[in-house]
Every structure is written in C-alpha cells, then in structure tokens.
C-alpha cells in the first residue's frame, strides 16, 4: 500500500503517534493531526528521521472549518487522502447524576461529531479513487460499560455504529470502514490522566490483570491492527469490530 496519503487524528502521542509512525513505515505519507501543529513535532520528527514523509497539522476535529483547512494543507503537500484513522478523543470521570449538559456535550462533540466531520471531509477523495480505508478507534468500555464514564462510553458506542453505517454506504465504492476498541493502552495522555483521577473506577493493575493476556496494551498493538486494516490484505473486511484488547471483551 505504498504511496498513499493517510490522516491520523489525535496523533501527537500515544495510539495516534504509534499509528502514524507505522503507516509511514508502510510507505504512506502521513498527516499527523492534533489540536495544534506544535504538539505533533515529535511524531513528525520520528517519521522523517526514519525516512518517512509526514506533515504536522493543527485542528480541533469538532470544528469543520479547521478540519477543512488542515486537509487542504495535507492535500497540497501529499495529494488525496485515502486512509483515515479517527483516533482523537477526550474523556471525563463524573458520576452520572452529577453530569452537566456541557460535560456530556463536550465529550460527544470531540469523540463522535469529530469522526463524523473528518470522515465526511475525507470521503470525497476516497470515492474519487474508488479505494479507501476508514479505521475508527473506539473503546472496549463501549462493549463492557464503565462507571462514571457515561459520555465517553456513549460516544465510543456511537463510533462503532457510525463505522457500520459508513461500511454499508461506501462499500460499493471500494471503501472499507472498521473499528478497533482498545483496552487500556499504556503511555497515552488519556490513560495517564485517567489513572491520576480519583474518579477512575478501576485500579491500573486490576485493569492490566483483567486478562486473559495480563499486561497493559501498547500503542504498537493498535498500530499493527491499523496497518493490516489499511492494507489490501484487508480489502474484504468491513463493518467489523477488531478487538485489540488482550481478550478483555470476548
């Protein structure tokens, strides 16, 4: 799949950075997008140092005009975008009865409206090419549920349903859409923040031992699955939940 252009959101660190580096290693040019381009400098530097091509982009994924400007910059640099990894997300830990409207809406705006906006902005390139890969990052919590995380769990469940809608509508155009719901992944900004929060309902070690593979996940675990889903080897795979979670949800 060399020579294609990919966009990875939330790619300054963690899962997004791991996916961006792997897609670049596979031979693709990569747009590394986060809230501002400066956050992406380290990821881009690692890709370029390894001989790859990457561009740092800044945008709020829930802001259509910012997404459009970032995509225009990426297309000018590397051409049409035919691989998309929707990874950007935020969370909070608030008991359900204490949630405010703004706390609910702020999480859904980034985690669900964001993938809607970015996918809608990128899909014309894929339709024109009659080839495309959309890979959405959800959460195994969307399958199992979790305390004090209603907005996050709801948004990530919505991502699973959005993925299936895209798979059905755009499959005839040679575009696949699949979703990966990770377990806890070590070293991400969100996970480190989460385990420092007193409202986190599960201890870090307990989650890591939730088995059957009793360790913390790594960004490269997710990146490997993304690499496969973005390749021609996965051309007959669409609308699927690919659980990269150590068997947490079977």
Describe the protein in words.
This protein is an alpha/beta fold and 250 residues long. The chain has one domain (5-184, 219-234): Rossmann fold. The protein contains 9 helices and 6 strands; from the N terminus they run βαβαβαβαβααβααα. The chain has helices spanning 14-25, 41-49, 64-78, 101-129, 141-144, 150-170, 189-195, 204-208, 219-229, and strands at residues 5-9, 29-34, 54-58, 83-86, 132-137, 175-180. It has a 6-stranded parallel β-sheet with strand order 3-2-1-4-5-6, with helices on both faces. α4 links the parallel β4 (83-86) and β5 (132-137). α1 runs parallel beside α2 (41-49) and α4 runs parallel beside α6. The two termini are 31 Å apart. The mean pLDDT is 91.
Our count of domains comes out at 1
Q: Helix-strand pattern, N to C?
A: EHEHEHEHEHHEHHH
Report low-confidence residues grouped into runs of 5 or more.
none
Inertia-based shape: globular
Sheet having the most strands: 6 strands, parallel
Strand content: 5-15%
Share of helix, binned: 40-55%
CATH superfamily: NAD(P)-binding Rossmann-like Domain
Summed up, the helix count is 9
State the secondary-structure class: alpha/beta
User: What's the CATH topology label?
Assistant: Rossmann fold
Number of extended strands: 6
